[in-house]
Amino acid sequence: METETNTNAHAGLDAGARTAVNTAFATVRRCFALYGALATAGLVGVVVLAATGHMVNTFMWIRAVLLPLVAVVLHRQAVAASRGSRRAYERVSQVSVVLPVAIVGVDLIPGVCPLWYAATQVVCMLPVVAVAVVSRGSAVRAAFPGKR
User: With contact defined as beta carbons under 8 Å apart, do 117 and 64 qualify?
Assistant: First the structure.
């Protein structure tokens, strides 16, 4: 159900433009799903490390738990945007730029987390960066004309 796009939401577009918008949002949803899978793998990694006696700080626990939850919320917003919600589109578009900068920026603060953990967070953010690019493409912008 969630992969279906309500083409009536973009009724002002010609068939080719609607197809481009549908394709773009399918990519966005896949990217958020991949981000969720990577974030969940990070959580599993933190759990395994803690269970085997390795050092895992509070920051890593909080981040590891929250990021998979954020992925679910972002995926739902992407679904709503694909169905024509301007508000959801704007959220997806804005968060996909801010989130990678915030995540990587905090990880670069000395002593916050080990370098290996920061590297895994960078990998998790790559699909989100792809969303930032796709959500600003001409086809998607044409589906949401006006305020930006």
Answer: no
